[in-house]
């Protein structure tokens, strides 16, 4: 069994499960997908809504392991922070690159995004880890979650009621419209906007705290059960808070943070128990392959989805279509629309698994 000072296979596997899920839900073959393979329309939670916060949570765990190892090797914290800033800027830049492809209209290019939020969360979680204590990080999580709840429920957007949490009337969307103007994902809001990044940082900090727990003293079984028990507590707390501050991925509400962190802890705890304690590893290889090249897998699958969407091919009924719809229709047209969409998404995920398995066998790991 690997010691805690080494790279955790279970963490790579959990990251790989998250990336595989991200590719699957990002790649429907048509405009019809199963409910659980699409985001909740607004309030609520689907399997798809778990993917992004899982990745942010994993960022927090991973940096505790990587930065702790470097500190133990004698590296200076200031130099480590410089490296963190460089990496965050690169990830943020990759997000802008994806957002603008292929035309890069600077007057409308979307500024927020998935990679941009990951970069920001990574930066702040590393900053907290390198320069603060565990108690300060715990307090910061509480301040971020309760502060965000207060801002969203006690401040008024012009023309709307106090605490309005609709797409148009919520305070986070108002901030994004004011700051970004046309540089948004949707006309009236952005799911990766400015204010909602605050609770996303709390998600990453909860990952930090999980990393401390995993690197600390104690038997592996105690660590696995601790993760699962904490996850159940978060799930119950998030569900209860959700009755007053709805679980909402686009707003990244405080209840959403607790529920998704709860699921992350439970699922990771199970991975840890199966792999690090029981030694059952053969099932995990495909996810390990994705997990060790996670950022590359995200960037490339989105890039080639965009390429397919740019190749316009009319559908059989004459309505507008693209290469992705064309492939789905001709390879999986025998299935129902939902099953055809799923078949394309599954095939696309397996295609990228083959690509990254080849890189894995050649020991090629794309690091940023």
Q: Give the uncertain stretches in residue-range form.
A: 1-5
* Secondary structural class: mainly alpha
* Shape call: globular
Which percent range describes the beta-strand content?
under 5%
Radius of gyration: 21 Å
**Helical stretch tally:** 13
Mean of the pLDDT scores?
95
Characterize the largest beta sheet: strand count, sense, and whether it forms a barrel: none
SSE order, one letter for each helix or strand: HHHHHHHHHHHHH
Number of strands: 0
Helix content: 55-70%
C-alpha end-to-end distance? 28 Å
Indicate the topology:
Elements: H1 9-26, H2 48-72, H3 77-100, H4 114-131, H5 134-154, H6 171-180, H7 197-215, H8 220-242, H9 254-277, H10 285-291, H11 294-310, H12 323-332, H13 337-361
Q: How do you describe this structure in short?
A:
The protein is mainly α.
Question: What does this entry look like structurally?
Answer:
The protein is mostly helical and 368 residues long. It is built from 13 helices and no strands. Helix 1 crosses helix 9, helix 1 packs across helix 10 and helix 1 packs antiparallel against helix 13. It is globular and about 65 Å long. The two termini are 28 Å apart. The N terminus is likely disordered.
Can you tag this structure with a few keywords?
mainly alpha
């Amino acid at each position: 069994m690997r010691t805690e000072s080494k790279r955790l296979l279970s963490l790579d596997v959990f990251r790989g499960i998250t990336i595989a899920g991200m590719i699957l839900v990002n790649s429907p073959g048509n405009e019809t997908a199963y409910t659980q393979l699409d985001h909740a329309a607004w309030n609520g939670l689907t399997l798809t809504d778990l993917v992004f916060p899982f990745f942010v949570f994993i960022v927090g765990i991973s940096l505790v392991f990587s930065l702790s190892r470097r500190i133990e090797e004698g590296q200076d914290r200031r130099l480590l922070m410089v490296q963190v800033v460089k990496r965050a800027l690169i990830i943020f830049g990759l997000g802008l690159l994806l957002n603008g492809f292929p035309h890069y209209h600077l007057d409308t290019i979307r500024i927020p995004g998935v990679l941009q939020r990951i970069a920001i969360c990574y930066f702040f979680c590393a900053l907290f880890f390198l320069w603060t204590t565990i108690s300060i990080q715990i307090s910061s999580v509480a301040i971020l979650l309760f502060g965000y709840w207060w801002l969203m429920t006690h401040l008024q957007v012009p023309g709307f009621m106090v605490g309005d949490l609709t797409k148009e009337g919520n305070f986070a969307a108002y901030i994004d419209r004011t700051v970004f103007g046309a540089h948004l994902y949707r006309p009236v809001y952005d799911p990766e906007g400015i204010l909602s990044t605050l609770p996303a940082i709390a998600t990453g900090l909860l990952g930090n705290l999980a990393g401390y727990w995993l690197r600390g003293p104690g038997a592996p079984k105690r660590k696995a059960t601790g993760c699962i028990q904490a996850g159940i507590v978060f799930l119950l707390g998030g569900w209860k808070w959700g009755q007053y501050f709805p679980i909402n991925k686009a707003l990244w509400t405080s209840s959403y943070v607790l529920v998704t962190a709860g699921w992350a802890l439970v699922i990771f705890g199970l991975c840890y128990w199966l792999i690090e304690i029981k030694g059952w590893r053969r099932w995990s290889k495909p996810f390990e392959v994705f997990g060790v090249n996670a950022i590359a897998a995200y960037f490339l699958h989105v890039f080639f989805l965009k390429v397919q969407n740019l190749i316009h091919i009319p559908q059989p009924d004459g309505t507008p279509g693209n290469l992705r719809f064309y492939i789905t229709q001709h390879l999986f047209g025998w299935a129902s629309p939902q099953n055809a969409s799923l078949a394309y998404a599954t095939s696309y995920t397996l295609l990228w698994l083959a690509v990254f398995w080849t890189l894995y066998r050649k020991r090629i790991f794309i690091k940023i």
